[in-house]
Every structure is written in C-alpha cells, then in structure tokens.
Amino acid sequence: MEIKSYPNGVFGATTYLVYDKESKEGVLIDCTCAVDEILNFIKQQNINLKYILITHGHFDHVYCLAEFKEKFPQIQVLMHKDDMPLLNQVANQCSMTGVEEIKVPCIDALINDDTKNLKIGNSEIKVIHTKGHSKGGVCYLIGDNLFSGDTLFKASIGRCDLFGGDIKEIEQSIKEKLFKLDDNITVYPGHGDKTTIGYEKKFNPYFGSNY
C-alpha cells in the first residue's frame, strides 16, 4: 500500500492519496488542495481512482472536491449521512472564515459503520464513525493505516466548539473505537504530523497514561 500526503491545504488541511501498487486501484481521502499535482501523479502512475472518501463536512476538507469531481465524474464521493446538514452549510462556513465560497457537488453514497465491500486491491476500507468533532465524522482504516480526519491528532484531538461538536462524544469515540485498535497502527490526521495509536494512548494529554 502506497500513501501520498498533500498538506498545506486550506487551514493546513491534508489530502491523502492511497493506492495499491499491484492493482493500481486508489482512493482520495478528503480534497483540500494540490489538485494539479495530484492529478499529474495519478496520470503518471496510471492509478484507477475508485472513491473519494470524505472524513467530515467542514469546508477545508471538501474545498477542492468539486474540481476533483469534474475531473472524475464517474467516481463515487462517500460521506457519513449525519454530516449532510454540515455540508449543506458550506457557504456559511466559508463566509464566517473569510474564505471564497466554494461549490460542493452532491455526495454519491452515504456511509456508516456497517458499510461493507469498500476495497482497493485486496485491502478492505473499514469505516469507523467517530462523532465528536462533527456528528458525522468518520475515520478510514486501510490495513495498518488510520486516516483520522479531525478526530485524532498527534498529542491532540479535534476541536469541539463548532457546529455539531461535542467534547464528550469525541473522547468516547477515541477511547471506545480508536484506542481499541492495535498500537502499531499509523494515524494520518487531517492536519499535522502522523502518529500511532500506541503513542496517543501514552502521550495524548486529553487521556493521560490510562492505556
């Protein structure tokens, strides 16, 4: 499994391109920036993009989604149903932060913890609903790699003072779902440096050394 990260999107958000070297099947996780660079790499490597996976409906994670969808109209965009109200308020989100309003295409399929049969190559894509940063926030587990959106960061967690945020819910999501995963799983967050589940159990200041 190959992972390419494209940081420095709006508000420092990161897009991830994950693909299988043998089958050349791949997915995009969030669409924050670097459209031309990503498109050129996909073309050079002859990657068959299967899905665009959205971790949550905040504008910085869908900022370039319409542009990618125009390039790949056949590709399904997936997001949790509980963040549709948030996505529908993208114009207001942009206005509140002084960012130029963006066009967001329709979500093609709604996902949840029970979503099955998402794969690239022989690797299953597991959807983990982790509400707290938003009602419909999800993480995607692909092999030993967790793409955590704005739920879990290195030594931090997602903010909970925005629409749909809840500090108790995000702490519960992390403790009961993410901290049940293997310690060696690498975490690729929506902002900032990668980490591991084991590191966060030991050093994340929101939880202490309780694991």
Walk me through what this model shows.
The protein is α/β, with parallel strands linked by helices. It has one domain (2-203): 4-Layer Sandwich (Metallo-beta-lactamase, Chain A), CATH 3.60.15.10. Helix content is 22%, strand content 27%. It contains six helices and 14 strands. It has a six-stranded mixed β-sheet with strand order 1-2-3-4-5-6, with no helix packed on it. Strands 7-8-9-10-13-14 form a six-stranded mixed β-sheet. Strands 11-12 form a two-stranded antiparallel sheet. The mean pLDDT is 93.
List keywords for this structure.
single chain, 211 residues, alpha/beta, Metallo-beta-lactamase, Chain A, 6-stranded mixed β-sheet, 14 strands, 22% helix, 27% strand, globular
Summarize the structure.
This protein is of the alpha/beta class and 211 residues long. It contains six helices and 14 strands.
